[in-house]
Structure formats: structure tokens, C-alpha cells
Amino acid sequence: MDVGFYFSTLFTDFGSTALSVITASYVIAAIGLNIHFGFTGLLNIGQAGFVLLGAYGFAITVRFTQNFWLGVVVALVAAVLFALVLGLPTLKLRGDYLAIVTIAAAEILRLLGDNQLLAPFTGGTFGIPGSAFSKPFSALSPFPQNGLFQLGPFNYPLSEGDSWWLRIVAWGIVALSIVVSFLLVRSPWGRVLRGIREDEDAIRSLGKNVTVYKTQSLVIGGLFGAVAGIVNVLATSVSADAMGRTLTFELYTCLLLGGAATVFGPLLGTFLYWLVLVFLRDTIGFWVPSGILSQQQIPQITWIFVGVGLMLLVIFRPQGILGNKKELAFGD
Amino acid sequence: MPVVVAGTRLFTHGGSYMLHVRGRWGLIAAAIIVAASALGLVAAESAVAAGPIASGTSCVADATTGCLQGKVVDDNRNPVAGAKVTVTSPSAATGSSKTAKDGSFFFAVTEAGAYQVALDPSSLPTGVTPKTPTLTVTVELSNITPAGFALNGHAKGSTSHAAASVSFWQLLGQQFSQGLLLGLLLALAAIGLSLIYGTTGLSNFAHSEQITLGGFLAWVFAVQLGLNIVVSAVIVIALTSLSGYLQDKLIWGPLRKRGLGLTQLMVVTIGLSLALEYVFQLIFGARVYPVATDLELNTGPLNITPTAYWSMLVSIVVLALVGLALTFSRLGRATRAVADNRALAAASGIDVERVIRIVWIVSTGLAGLSGVLYALVNGGVYWLTGAQLLLLVFAAVTLGGIGTAFGALVGSLIIGVVANVSTLFIPQDLKYATGLVILIVVLLVRPQGILGRRERVG
Question: Which pLDDT does position A230 carry in this prediction?
């Protein structure tokens, strides 16, 4: 066994994962979830639904109009409407109602995305290929349209598809999202959110309309989810099954790993989450003979690690790496 | 009437469950897996093939794997099973697979590039020809590439969705009895979920994997070991109840003592659910395991199979027994007392921890039975069977009123019937979505559920 090859593969994979647009989209979605869960204490387990709406809203609009900005607007409006639909019936109720409704609503969206009747728009179970909607975004690129650019071991197209241009924009949005979430949570508005998380009745007694604040939080966090959906599908293609509840659970793992209710938690947690996955995949693939575990079984093993990891994290370190135990998002 | 074999939808992603690998529990789980392998119970999975192209009944794309998948449907848009699909990679490697019951095929490939996907016309039913026998698609790694085949013509059994050969009322009756059946099976799982919620406050997302576990164990005993189905069902209930006992003893009991909040515990069940789901996939792969192997004809007033009648009868008897036990037995009264006011129950001399442990045992046993019956009447069990049902079970519990056992029964029946009857008006694959829409509507109108009390809503 060539150990040198193992390490070079591992570090190249680490690098490409750290640059990856998918990683960036997870960070953005986790920032949204952090506003819901970390700062407001809303147990939204349907964040994948916001991601899915953003993805489909953007992809379908751009597919038929070839207008990038219109696609972005439609995606954002869809997320706002979804947040209102979810929020109005549930935000006045006990927390676990929101949990069940959000996961159910996200599942309805996934089933609709797969549905054959809507196939002329959504592509049904086949989804929408990236080529159908990625052109207008590539056209915005300041780089030459064609050609590749190599930086060390990383060789990507300049403008088209999963490109350097998309990477720059995606990580730019990550940086912007972190700044926005920082400004939001240290504003008076953000302090009210934390207050709601800690003691809803106390905030109510101060004359604040708690339901309105919760709805605002749900809308804003959902917008981050929709943006994550746009970023994600620009690098890949639209597929409803990739945006099911497993995605939400992954986002929770990322968020709780980094630390809920912290500004940098989503970024750190998502990085660590993906690096651990890459490490597991490469290590099992390299060291465990394929007779014991085949290529197909490696993802299954990594998923089991994710599940067990989430359990252990919540039991033994619910505040994550950066979090403060006094500021725990888990009420009870 | 035609034989009714309900299809089971596959999806590549989904939520859910695992055996906590810690201490004795982990050892027991490992021992079961080892013993199962030794007995040859662990089926070789078709998705696990060496080489660049693997076929199977699902595909998960990752950085080194691309998925090439699609469906073969006839001109009535009905799926065609058993059609042979062959793919050829850019480096001329080939792989082939037959379409599943839902007409789907999946290939996992490790090489990106242009692939030829060919449908073998001779594998199609007579009179059916492909519109385009060969497709060329570009596969990217870590991505899902669709390849769908449309056909000219259809086989005899394939009914047009437009032409109604049966009257509306007949269809309605058919869907109603199917709904009743689904509702009863949901109720078995829902009452357990509701009891656990009532006594501990925990929303147990890992309950779905008890259903799946029941289904798989039924396959192991009834099909693999060839035991009588009734004997198998009894063994399965015993084993799933044991899993509930061990879970409470090794995970939930200690976590309650540790003082974990309910939200924290709920996220723990989500992690457990996710891990267990993939433990199932690791052991059993992604294919559907049929538990009832005989094809049966629909008979009787409800126009369902004899197995379905038996399943309904078993569900009704078991549900009635649970109901009677809850109402009249000492333990049942103690359970309701704990659900009502835990501190007061403890003060009046009820051993709360013991009640909770028994609730776990009964709940997981009921979910196991639900899994056995579901696998019997729905064509089989696969790793996501429980995950598919879980949200309907939650919807049923919420509809009936969270924490009330009888409400769970009423809610389940309503969800089962409405979901099935809705397929008369909307596509079959949105059946489960209907159940979830009901859930959201109920929360808008009557958040405490049908039998719930207002104060519980908080």
C-alpha cells in the first residue's frame, strides 16, 4: 500500500471539498437554520424544504425565461411564502408542532418535485439538468466563457458549470451571509430573538409581539435556505430526492458541531462535517479491502457515522465547538 | 378483479434509525449481525458489484460515484417491470439491469462521460416497443443523471388512467377499504408513538425504524427460515419488544436521568433514526424483500386479499386489547396517570420509570407488528419502509390529539382513508402528501386535535 498516495489523495480531496460549491451551499443553509434554531429556538426540521423551493423556483424560472435575476427573485419570494404558510398556523403553538409541520411540509414539496404530473416544469423524478438553467449565470462571469484554470491540483472551468466563477460567488455569499447574520443577531431585533429563545413569556410581558418576531425569523432563515438552494443547483442539477429530510439532518449536524447560536458555528461545523466525511470515505476506501466493504457501502458507513455522531454530539456537547453552554438553543 | 400489489416507492435519500453502539447494546447488535451473516441471512445485494458499473435498486451519488437512473413507462404512463436496460460507459464497460416493479432502474458508475443507455425491446411485453431504444446521456460524478424510456403500446394489465372501466363508486369502495387497512396498520404504530409521547414527552423519530425492523425480521423468520407466519409474527413482536426494552434501559432511561431536554432527546432520536436506516441498508441493501410470496385474489365485501382481512382482524383485536388494558387494567390506569401528571403519579406511589419501560416495550412491539403486517399486505419491506410511514404516523397522532391513545386510533383511520381515497382525484404518488396536508390543515383549525384537550397546546 502506498501511504504517500493515500495522503496526497486525502489532502487533495480536503482541498477540493473546502473549495466546493456544495460545501458553501451547506454553510449558507446552516446559517439560515442557525437563525431559526440557534437564535430564536425555532425547531425547524424542514430547512431542506426552503432549499428545495429556492432550487426549483430558480431553476424553473431561469429554464423558461433565461433571466438569472428573475430566477433569484422567484426563489426568494417562494421561500418567503413558504415561511408564512408554515409560520401562521404553528408559531403560536408549542415548539414541537412547528417541528412536525416543517418536516411534513418539506416532505410534501419533495413528493411534488418527484411528481410526474408536474414533469413539464420540474422534470419529475429525473429533475432538471444543470445545463437547462446555468447559462445565464455563466454569462455574468467576468472571466472568459470557455477554458479551464488550474491552481495546484484543482482544475475547474473558468465560467461554465461547477466553475471558479461559481466558487468565488458562492464563497462570497458565504462571507456576506456571515456578516449579515452577525449584524442581525447583535441588533436590537436579534436580542429580542434571543430573548424569545430564553423566555418567550418574559418577552411577551415586555410588550413585544412574539409571533411576529418568530415569523420574521422564519422568513429570514428561510431566505438563506433558498439562496443555498440556488447556489447548490448551479453546481449540480435539480433533484428533489437530494433535498429530502436527510439534508435537514445533515444541516443540523453541521450546525450543532460548530455550535448553534454562534456566528461562525455554521462555517466551522460544515467544514469539519465535510472533512470528516471525506476522511472516512478516503480512509475506508484505501485501507479496508473491497471484499469487506465495497465502494457502494462506504456512503452507508459514513451515514451511520453521521447519525451516531449527531446523537453523541447532542448528548455530550450540545453547545458544539464554539458554543456557550449558557446560551443553549435547546430549551426543553 | 385484478391482483392488487401495491408498489413501494424508492427514493435515494431519506431520513432515519440506529442501534446505539455503546456497551452491551452494541455488542448485542453486533452479535445479531454476526449471527445473521453466519446463517446466511444477510442477502447478497445486487448493488454491490465490483467494477465501474453497478446496478441495484437505488443509487447514492457521492464524489466518486455518479448515478444513472430512470424509469421505463408505457403509453399509459404505467411502469414496466422486468425490462432489460444495458449501459455502456465511455471506456466500453457495460452493465445491465432489469427494471423494478415501479419500472425504475439504477446504475452506480465511477467514470464520468457519455454513456449509451439501451433498452432491450425483447424484454418488453408483446406489442410494446420503445420510442427510442438507445439514449446517450452525459454522466457526472456526484450527480444523478436521468434516463427515461417512453414506450409505444402497453401490456394487457396496464389500464389507462383516462378511461374508467370501473365505476367511480367501485373505485371509491376499493380505496376506502385499502385506506381502512392502511389506517389500522398506522394505528398500531401511532398508539405506541402517542403513548411514548404521553408518558415521556418525547417525539420519537426513530419509531419508524421499529416498523422497518418488524418487516425485516418477518422476512428473516417467515421467508428465510420458512416458519409459519403466525409463529414468525409472535417471534418478531417478542424481538421488537426486547429492542424497546433495551433501548429504554440503555439509551432513553440514562438520558432522562442525565436531564437532557426534550428537544435534545428528539434530535438524538433523529440521529438514531438516520444511523439505523443505514444499518438496515448496509445489511439488506436497497431492494424490497417480499414477505408474502403467494399471489392472492381480492375477495369479499371489502374487495381485498385474504391476508389483508387477517391483517385487519389482527390489528383490530390488538388495538382493542390495548384499549381495554389502558382503560381497565392497573397498569393501564398507571400509564394514563403518568401521562396526565408525572409528578402526581409518582407521589401517589406509581413507579414511573417502570411504567415508562413497559410503555417502551409495548410501543415497540406494536410497531414491530405493524411492520410485519405492512410488509405482508404491501408487497414487502425495504430499508425506508418505516421512514415513508413515519410522517403519516405523526400526522395521525397530531390529528387525533397528541398524547391521547384513542385519538391516535381515530387519527390513523382518517389519515389512512383520506390518503387512499385522494388517489381518485390526484396522482398515486402524492398519496402520502395528502396525509401531510391534512396535518397542516388540522393545526390551522383545531391544533389540539380531535380528541385532544385545549390546555395541552400551550
Answer: 96
